[in-house]
Specification:
Elements (H helix, E strand, L loop, with lengths): L8 E6 L2 H9 L8 E3 L6 E2 L1 H4 L9 H7 L4 E3 L3 H18 L3 E5 L2 E5 L4 H4 L2 H16 L3 E6 L2 H11 L4 E3 L5 H5 L12 H9 L5 H5 L3 H8 L1 H11 L15 E7 L8 H21 L2 E12 L4 E12 L2 H22 L1 E9 L2 E2 L15 H13 L17 E3 L6
Parallel strand pairs: 2-4, 7-8
Antiparallel strand pairs: 1-6, 1-7, 2-3, 5-6, 9-12, 9-14, 10-11, 10-12, 10-13
C-alpha cells in the first residue's frame, strides 16, 4: 500500500471538547477550572487538569484535587451540535475525512496545494475557521502517516499546531515516552518498563523477534512497525461504525442493588437499541463493560446466534452477562456500567429467521415511532417510571 512521501495527513482533535463547549456557552466559566459530570468526570478543562483532574476520575477525588472547580452536568445535545459544525468545516476543507470520534478526525489534504496551499497552510486555516465559526480551540498534527499525525497533535496540545517533516520523523518520535505508541496502555507500558524500555527509540532498537517474545506476535509486530513510523493505512471515508455503545457513571457514594443495576441496564439497552434501529443496523455481539471502585475494569461479551435489532433479545443477553458478573460487583463495588453493540451489519442483509409469520420487531418499531413523534419520554418501560436514569453518554473519547 502506497504512503505519500509528503506530510499531507492532518489529525484534528478538539481540546477538552465537552469542557470547551461549556466554557464557550457560559462566559462565567472561561479561564476557570471546569469539570463536566458529577459522579464521574466526563471531561475537565485544562485549568482543572492543571490540578491533576482527569477523565474517568471519581467526582469526589476530582473535587478534592481542585476544590474551586465548577461542576456542570453534561449536555450531550450541545456537544453533538458542536461536533456536526466542526465536521462540516472538515468536509469543506477536503473530501477525504475519516472521523474517529465525536471530537477528532483524520484529513488527507494531498493534491490540494494549488487550490488550498500547503498542508501547514491548510492546518492554520482549519484551526482559525473552527475557532471563528464554532468558537472552539482545536489542535492539529501534520505528518506523513496517520499514526505520526495523531502523535503530533497529542504533543501539540492544547490549542496547538505541530508539523513533522518527513526528514525529521524519527528524531521527533524516538525521544517520546513509550505510551505515545498507539495501543500501548498502562499494562504494556509497565511490562516494557520491566525490561528497562521507556522510550519509543528503545523500542525501535529492539529486533522484531525480541518484541514478539516479550509481548506476543500481534503486539510485537505492531509496536515494531510504529516505532519505525511504518503505518501504510490511508485516510478512509464512508466507513460505517463497527460498534456503538453508551455508558452510565454511577458514582461511589452508595452500593447498588441488583435491581438498581438491572434498571440502569434496561435504560441503556433501550436507548441503544433504538439508535441501532434508527441507523438501520443489526448487531451480532453484545458487550458489558464494568468499572469497579478501585478503578479496575472488566468486559464481558456474548455473540448471538443471529444478528438482531430486537430490544428483548439484546436485553436478555446483557442480563445474563450482568448476572455472571454480580459476585465481583458485590465484592468490589461498581462505579460505571457500559453497553456496546458490535459486529454491526445493515438490517437489509440479515437472513430471516423461521417462523416467518410475524415481525419480531413490530413492538420495537411501534415504540420508536411514538418516541420519534412525541419525544423520547412519551413512552417508557414500567421499570424506569419514577427513577432517575442519570446521564448516559456515547462511548466516545473526550481525551486531552
Amino acid at each position: 500500500m502506497f504512503v505519500s512521501g509528503q506530510a499531507t495527513i492532518l489529525h484534528a482533535d478538539l481540546d477538552s471538547f465537552y469542557a470547551s463547549v461549556e466554557q464557550r456557552d457560559d462566559p462565567r466559566l472561561r479561564a476557570r477550572p471546569v469539570i463536566v459530570g458529577g459522579g464521574v468526570v466526563l471531561a475537565a478543562s485544562y485549568e482543572a487538569k492543571a490540578y491533576g483532574v482527569r477523565t474517568a476520575m471519581s467526582g469526589g477525588q476530582a473535587r478534592r484535587l481542585c476544590p474551586q472547580a465548577i461542576v456542570v452536568p453534561p449536555r450531550m445535545s450541545a456537544y453533538t451540535e458542536a461536533s456536526k459544525a466542526v465536521f462540516a468545516i472538515f468536509k469543506h476543507t477536503t473530501p477525504l475525512v475519516e472521523g474517529l470520534s465525536i471530537d477528532e478526525a483524520f484529513l488527507d489534504v494531498a493534491g490540494l496545494r494549488r487550490i488550498s496551499g500547503t498542508p501547514p497552510d491548510i492546518a492554520v486555516r482549519l484551526r482559525r475557521e473552527v475557532l471563528e465559526e464554532v468558537g472552539l480551540p482545536i489542535t492539529v498534527g501534520v505528518a506523513r502517516t496517520k499514526f505520526l499525525a495523531k502523535v503530533a497533535s497529542a504533543v501539540a496540545k492544547p490549542d496547538g499546531l505541530l508539523v513533522v517533516p518527513p526528514d525529521g520523523e524519527l528524531n521527533f518520535l524516538h525521544p517520546l515516552p513509550v505510551r505515545r505508541l498507539w495501543g500501548v496502555g498502562a499494562i504494556t507500558a509497565d511490562k516494557l518498563k520491566g525490561y528497562g524500555i521507556t522510550t519509543v527509540g528503545e523500542v525501535a532498537r529492539l529486533p522484531e523477534d525480541t518484541l514478539i517474545a516479550m509481548l506476543g506476535r500481534a503486539s510485537g509486530r505492531h509496536l515494531h512497525a510504529l516505532a519505525h513510523n511504518r503505518d501504510p493505512r490511508p485516510v478512509r471515508t464512508g466507513v460505517r461504525r463497527r460498534s456503538m455503545g453508551a455508558q452510565r457513571a454511577l458514582g461511589s457514594r452508595r452500593r447498588r442493588t441488583a435491581q438498581d443495576l438491572d434498571t440502569t441496564l434496561v435504560g441503556l439497552v433501550d436507548k441503544l437499541a433504538r439508535r441501532l434501529r434508527s441507523a438501520h443496523r443489526v448487531c451480532r455481539t453484545v458487550t458489558l463493560r464494568l468499572r469497579f471502585e478501585d478503578f479496575t475494569r472488566i468486559t464481558r461479551s456474548h455473540t448471538l446466534p443471529q444478528a438482531t435489532g430486537e430490544t428483548p433479545v439484546i436485553l436478555s443477553a446483557m442480563r445474563e452477562l450482568l448476572a455472571a458478573a454480580m459476585p465481583m460487583i458485590r465484592e468490589q463495588g461498581i462505579t460505571l456500567i457500559g453497553v456496546t453493540l458490535g459486529n454491526l451489519h445493515s438490517d437489509n442483509a440479515v437472513q430471516l429467521a423461521i417462523p416467518l409469520n410475524h415481525d419480531p420487531t413490530a413492538l420495537d418499531t411501534a415504540m420508536d415511532d411514538v418516541r420519534d413523534k412525541f419525544g423520547s419520554k412519551a413512552l417508557t418501560r414500567a421499570v424506569l417510571l419514577g427513577r432517575d436514569e442519570g446521564v448516559s453518554v456515547p462511548l466516545l473519547p473526550d481525551a486531552d
